[in-house]
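Dear Dr. V.,

Thank you for agreeing to look over these. As mentioned in my earlier message, I'm a first-year student in the group and I'm still getting used to reading structure tokens, so any feedback on how I've presented them would be very welcome. I ran two proteins. I've put each sequence directly above its structure. The first is here:
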Amino acid sequence: MRITLMIKRLFITCLAVLAGLPVLPANAESTHVTMGGKGISDPYFPTAGTIATSVNQTRTIHGFRVTVKSRRESISVINAVISGDLDFGVVHGRRIFQACNGLVGWEGRPQSELRSVFTVQAEQVALITLAGSGIRTIKDLEGRRVFTGGVRSDLRDTVMDILKAAGIDPHRGIRATGAAAEEAPGLMMDASIDAFFYLMGTTNRAFWELVSTAEAVRLVPVSGSGIDEMTEADPFYEKSIIRLKHFPYFANTSDVDTIGVKAGLVTAARVPDKIVHTLIREVFNRVDEVKKRQPAAVVMTRAAMAEGMVAPVHPGAETFYRQSGIAHSLLRP
């Protein structure tokens, strides 16, 4: 058995050398690389899990395993990456900008050690209501009870931007309710709200619980001229489509227009180039698999993943892009 295992490892190593892949020492398989995303029920955590799954498929060749940990918000994920508690993190694009420039959450303390690896659309904005609510467009939210997320959460910031773009005063135009995002479905089941915003990337148990109620649940399009102008002017948002084949429990009969929130995979300057290079290579080699596992990543392409990074690009990622002939760019908000 031991001899067979040794032969198997030798065979894999030979294949790796022939393919030009970096080979780490035999005992490096025990090396653990950590990656974080906010909230188990939020899209960022499953996105981190999808990335980890892609990388771990060839762990016997490259020599490390990625494990995924959750944090409460993007701010705490970035802080964990900077402090060394995490090696990588999937976070909201605007939070990366704020961290690099010493803004909200890091006032006067630019996080100069933060580095970009690639961008990804981790989540889509879902506006959800009951079929009998009479809410068919964003404008129909005026005067209604609307869940907008917790204070200083990624969801709250996004909802504020959407309402303003749609011409609705987020403080006076609706009757806003704020709490942790996972509480929203329960509030609707209790008839405490008329609609709620949710950042959605994967199927979620909360939605299955919600559709167990007698009345059908609908998605309301997040679209219109104001929204179009917002996605053109704000680099952290882009147009997207919620594909019902991924979310069959909604009563809609066709796919729904919405916006996607750009996120990024970040790391710290201290993380070895080889680790970063290997991780990005494995993910880029399996983009189609990632898209199947992560519905919000439906628009993901290799070219798009290399565009609009906010923090300086990590040298390991720079090397990969150069060797692969993939043009990459930094975002200049």
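The second protein is here, in the same arrangement:
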Amino acid sequence: MSTSQSVQVHQVIALFEEIRAGRHIKRHPWTEFQLAEGEYDEIERRLERSELLGYVKDKIRYDYDRESDRLVVRMPTAVHELFIARVEDAIFSQLKSIRDGLGAAAAFAQKVYPARSTEIYFPVDNFPFGRKSKHEPDASFWHDDAQYPGVVIEVAYSQKRKRLDRLADDYLLDSDASVQVVVGLDIEYRSIEYGRKVSRQATFSVWRTHVVSTTDGNELRVVKEIADEAFRDDKGNPTNHPGLRLQLSDFACEELTKEAFRGEGGEIILSTQELCQYLAAAEDKIQGQRALVRHSILPGMKKREKYAEQEERAAKRTTDDDPDYEDRSSTKSLLE
């Protein structure tokens, strides 16, 4: 591996170390690394030999595109996380309402669950066996019998916004249309009029696949059915758009839905008012626009040193497990 390659590998590992140490606060929530051939494999080898491996697997979200050798480390903001949690909960609540009904639609909905950022692996065409791309979306909904989620949701901000079209292509085409729909929610404030004002506009986009007939036969293409449609205007108010609409059949591939519904499927709708409410609640909580309640301990009450109880238990286990450990006080009382 060349020196330039090893520098790039070192930068990725160093970022993982920063995140574990809590020194990444000022980092952008979407950090891209354009790797050279072999660098991703080297990163994996170094992690395998490092105590950092467990932390990266459990705590750090990242995507890797095998075709372009692009690695993206995701560090979503608190507003981002609170907003997507409310969106996910609202969709799942409507799915649960469909579950309470009768017939095939209810039976189908009973097998659909939110999977948040569960890793998705896609095989790469024309690459050696076993080489896969990896994505960890902001939210997803997965049918129990499906290999891939039917619905994927991504929350966007500046740099990530530029990649949403490509992300939609990855999800929809690499899954062979097993992923039915990709939703993009763009919630970052924008400067307008040369930076003198800030727009609070927030938008959403929707991508699906369509089969197009060409001279070479049918071709699967990605179509952006809704493009940057505002659900919140510049002043922070809901727009008049009907909002985000998903069909129950969106939540799994055609093989699991074509015989299931027979026209009795349901619709999941998030109005612009609801989306605005979820986003405003997340912003208010994090940006301190309203007073939040916390518990107060009585004046003069002392707090025990952190980890003291765990350390005492660990010391006791050492004593119990060590046959050579000598309890001086007990020995002394026996000899007297």
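From my reading of the second output: Confidence is low (pLDDT under 50) at residues 327-336. The longest strand covers residues 217-232. Does that match how you would interpret it?

Kind regards,
E.
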